[in-house]
């Protein structure tokens, strides 16, 4: 049997997460055989389909290009995937807000369980996934004929992009009279995507204001870093929700993570503790963040950050 | 309009959980339990909609062990009018929870069903979406704003890139994100009053749903521990370490 991947895309661009999902699919395929297909659903998505066709290991890209799939609303996406799922043993998507919105629907429509945020493929039906904010790792085995799975990107290295899969269109068009897209407010910046960046610098409540996040920007520019935040910083309105790192925000595992004015609550650690090197800058030497930091600097961030920026300019 | 709000009993968010000795789960003996934080937000939203006159009745429901009645009483103290307890001592996976909730939706016909987006024990983030699929309702997940307007609801959702607003035809399912509201604390007189509010107990078999798991939990392990690092004395020392020791910049 074969594997179907739901492509993650935004603004007519294939998102990096899809190549990580493909890596998880590849591991299942090595055990099970069969093909890996990718579904690109949306409106005017031919460019996305071309990018998906380059992913290593993909046999076929199936494109459902129709206005009903614009903005990938859950109801039509769920119905489409449930219809296509009959040809597959596994349906995989990214553990993104799109994957999490759509895949549980698909599972329920097919009367099977859904397995969230897998980190590891043990076998074609057995997977590891974090529970309790990553304080425990569960190994779960599914007895369902169809496995519907979301994949945590940090658990799998992205596949290469040397492939040339066939592209074919999917004619299935479902009805949707229940939900309509009204508007969106997306963050605009030129920095790398938070969940894919090699370096992330995050600010917490200690930053004191949104204005003060500028202190991180100069450093992020020097390091080519993405900027993240704790929940407290988002709740306080310093920055937008798309920057939240943690159990209920984004999961990151960069080469270097710099936590500034962040205490290190369990829920924040859940989103960044798999980073290769962690640096913490905090004025409280007892802050729990220091227990996971490779390099801790006990200092007032308002003094340390300008010095750091100029040290990086040398 | 009636609002159904689902709540779950979980290990309190402030507890540092530990894997148990035989790797079958986490240590639960003498651990503080509480209502899942996202469910508190769901209850709060339902109660606010009632206070605004949008909703006429708020019904809280939980699926879980006998002790989960504590969380139902909390929901009643926070302003729910009555409660339904679907009692089972077994582990119930999301799909079965959704099937049980679907029977309650069928019986109660709520205009809105509000759930937390995820429970902080299993971190699944599935039940609301599954319930919507099973009942044929539209869904507004990860909500940070909810506005009911006649037969429609506008839901602003926290998505990876920022915020998205969608409109759903009622009845609909909503799952809450952290910034939807700040839940109130129950006041003592309300806690006393809650003891007298109706709480109906049902069993999964009454509802014709088999509590069976299609996922088997084989093992639970602790994640790899990070080794504690060092404290550096200055920014210059930090930059030197990052360049020459860790080699990450
Ligand atoms: C269900 C649930 C889900 C959650 N999900 C998330 C999540 O996804 N992500 C997340 O981050 N949190 C999450 N939280 C919240 C989490 O529990 C913490 O409340 C939050 O992470 C705290 O953010 P903080 O470290 O910025 O703030 P605080 O804990 O207030 O810490 C601020 C730190 O800044 C330091 N500081 C202050 N001023 C300075 C200065 N001038 N110089 C240097 N240091 C300074 C202080 O010493 C302190 O350590 C969640 C909580 C719950 C209950």
UniProtKB/TrEMBL annotation, chain A:
<feature type="domain" description="Electron transfer flavoprotein alpha/beta-subunit N-terminal">
    <location>
        <begin position="3"/>
        <end position="185"/>
    </location>
</feature>
<feature type="binding site">
    <location>
        <position position="282"/>
    </location>
    <ligand>
        <name>FAD</name>
    </ligand>
</feature>
<dbReference type="InterPro" id="IPR014730">
    <property type="entry name" value="ETF_a/b_N"/>
</dbReference>
<dbReference type="InterPro" id="IPR014729">
    <property type="entry name" value="Rossmann-like_a/b/a_fold"/>
</dbReference>
<comment type="similarity">
    <text>Belongs to the ETF alpha-subunit/FixB family.</text>
</comment>
<dbReference type="Pfam" id="PF00766">
    <property type="entry name" value="ETF_alpha"/>
</dbReference>
<dbReference type="InterPro" id="IPR018206">
    <property type="entry name" value="ETF_asu_C_CS"/>
</dbReference>
<dbReference type="InterPro" id="IPR001308">
    <property type="entry name" value="ETF_a/FixB"/>
</dbReference>
<feature type="binding site">
    <location>
        <begin position="244"/>
        <end position="248"/>
    </location>
    <ligand>
        <name>FAD</name>
    </ligand>
</feature>
<dbReference type="GO" id="GO:0050660">
    <property type="term" value="F:flavin adenine dinucleotide binding"/>
</dbReference>
<comment type="function">
    <text>The electron transfer flavoprotein serves as a specific electron acceptor for other dehydrogenases. It transfers the electrons to the main respiratory chain via ETF-ubiquinone oxidoreductase (ETF dehydrogenase).</text>
</comment>
<protein>
    <recommendedName>
        <fullName>Electron transfer flavoprotein subunit alpha</fullName>
    </recommendedName>
</protein>
<feature type="binding site">
    <location>
        <position position="205"/>
    </location>
    <ligand>
        <name>FAD</name>
    </ligand>
</feature>
<keyword id="KW-0813">Transport</keyword>
<dbReference type="InterPro" id="IPR033947">
    <property type="entry name" value="ETF_alpha_N"/>
</dbReference>
<feature type="binding site">
    <location>
        <begin position="261"/>
        <end position="268"/>
    </location>
    <ligand>
        <name>FAD</name>
    </ligand>
</feature>
<dbReference type="InterPro" id="IPR029035">
    <property type="entry name" value="DHS-like_NAD/FAD-binding_dom"/>
</dbReference>
<keyword id="KW-0285">Flavoprotein</keyword>
<dbReference type="Pfam" id="PF01012">
    <property type="entry name" value="ETF"/>
</dbReference>
<keyword id="KW-0249">Electron transport</keyword>
<keyword id="KW-0274">FAD</keyword>
<dbReference type="InterPro" id="IPR014731">
    <property type="entry name" value="ETF_asu_C"/>
</dbReference>
UniProtKB/TrEMBL annotation, chain B:
<dbReference type="Pfam" id="PF01012">
    <property type="entry name" value="ETF"/>
</dbReference>
<keyword id="KW-0813">Transport</keyword>
<comment type="function">
    <text>The electron transfer flavoprotein serves as a specific electron acceptor for other dehydrogenases. It transfers the electrons to the main respiratory chain via ETF-ubiquinone oxidoreductase (ETF dehydrogenase).</text>
</comment>
<feature type="domain" description="Electron transfer flavoprotein alpha/beta-subunit N-terminal">
    <location>
        <begin position="23"/>
        <end position="211"/>
    </location>
</feature>
<dbReference type="InterPro" id="IPR012255">
    <property type="entry name" value="ETF_b"/>
</dbReference>
<dbReference type="InterPro" id="IPR014729">
    <property type="entry name" value="Rossmann-like_a/b/a_fold"/>
</dbReference>
<dbReference type="GO" id="GO:0009055">
    <property type="term" value="F:electron transfer activity"/>
</dbReference>
<dbReference type="GO" id="GO:0046395">
    <property type="term" value="P:carboxylic acid catabolic process"/>
</dbReference>
<comment type="subunit">
    <text>Heterodimer of an alpha and a beta subunit.</text>
</comment>
<dbReference type="InterPro" id="IPR033948">
    <property type="entry name" value="ETF_beta_N"/>
</dbReference>
<dbReference type="InterPro" id="IPR014730">
    <property type="entry name" value="ETF_a/b_N"/>
</dbReference>
<dbReference type="InterPro" id="IPR000049">
    <property type="entry name" value="ET-Flavoprotein_bsu_CS"/>
</dbReference>
<comment type="similarity">
    <text>Belongs to the ETF beta-subunit/FixA family.</text>
</comment>
<protein>
    <recommendedName>
        <fullName>Electron transfer flavoprotein subunit beta</fullName>
    </recommendedName>
</protein>
<keyword id="KW-0249">Electron transport</keyword>
């Amino acid at each position: 049997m074969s594997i179907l991947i739901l492509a993650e895309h935004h603004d007519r661009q294939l998102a990096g997460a899809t190549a990580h999902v493909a890596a998880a699919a590849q591991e299942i395929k090595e055990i099970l055989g069969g093909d890996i297909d990718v579904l690109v659903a949306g409106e005017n998505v031919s460019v996305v389909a071309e990018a998906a066709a380059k992913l290593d290991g993909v046999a076929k890209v199936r494109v459902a290009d129709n206005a009903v799939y614009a903005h990938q609303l859950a109801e039509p996406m769920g119905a489409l995937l449930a219809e296509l799922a009959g040809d597959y043993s596994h349906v995989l998507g990214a553990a993104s807000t799109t994957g999490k919105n759509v895949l549980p629907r698909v599972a329920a429509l097919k009367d099977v369980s859904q397995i969230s945020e897998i980190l590891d493929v043990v076998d074609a039906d057995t997977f590891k996934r974090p529970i309790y904010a990553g304080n425990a790792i569960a190994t779960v085995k599914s007895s369902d004929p169809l496995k519907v799975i979301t994949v945590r990107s940090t658990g799998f290295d992205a596949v290469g992009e040397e492939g040339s899969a066939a592209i074919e269109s999917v004619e299935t068009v479902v009805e949707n009279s229940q939900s309509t897209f009204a508007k969106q407010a997306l963050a605009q910046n030129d920095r790398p995507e938070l969940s894919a960046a090699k370096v992330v610098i995050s600010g917490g409540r200690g930053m004191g204001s949104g204005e003060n996040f500028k202190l991180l920007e100069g450093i992020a520019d020097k390091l080519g870093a993405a900027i993240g935040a704790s929940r407290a910083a988002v709740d306080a309105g310093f920055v937008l929700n798309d920057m939240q790192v943690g159990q209920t925000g984004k999961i990151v595992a960069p080469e270097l993570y710099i936590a500034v004015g962040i205490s290190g609550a369990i829920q924040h650690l859940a989103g960044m503790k798999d980073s290769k090197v962690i640096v913490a800058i905090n004025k409280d030497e007892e802050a729990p963040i220091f227990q996971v930091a490779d390099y801790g600097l006990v200092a007032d961030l308002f003094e340390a950050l300008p010095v750091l920026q100029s040290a990086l300019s040398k | 309009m009636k609002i159904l709000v689902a709540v779950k009993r979980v290990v309190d968010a402030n507890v540092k959980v530990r894997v148990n000795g035989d790797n079958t789960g986490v240590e639960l003996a003498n651990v503080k339990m509480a209502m899942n934080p996202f469910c508190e937000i769901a209850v709060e939203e339902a109660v606010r909609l009632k206070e605004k006159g949008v909703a006429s009745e708020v019904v809280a429901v939980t699926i879980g062990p006998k002790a989960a009645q504590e969380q139902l009483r909390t929901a009643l103290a926070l302003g729910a009018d009555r409660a339904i307890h679907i009692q089972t001592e077994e582990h119930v996976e999301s799909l079965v929870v959704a099937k049980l909730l679907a029977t309650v939706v069928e019986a109660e016909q709520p205009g809105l069903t509000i759930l937390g987006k995820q429970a902080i024990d299993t971190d699944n983030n599935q039940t609301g979406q599954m319930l919507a699929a099973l009942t044929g309702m539209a869904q507004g997940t990860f909500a940070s704003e909810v506005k009911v307007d006649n037969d429609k609801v506008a839901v602003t959702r926290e998505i990876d890139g920022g915020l998205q607003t969608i409109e759903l035809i009622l009845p609909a399912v909503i799952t809450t994100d952290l910034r939807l509201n700040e839940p109130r604390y129950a006041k003592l007189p309300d806690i006393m009053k809650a003891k007298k509010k109706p709480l109906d107990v049902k069993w999964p078999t009454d509802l014709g749903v088999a509590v069976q798991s299609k996922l088997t939990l084989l093992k639970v392990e602790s994640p790899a521990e990070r080794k504690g690092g060092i404290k550096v004395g200055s920014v210059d020392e930090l930059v030197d370490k990052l360049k020459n020791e860790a080699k990450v910049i």
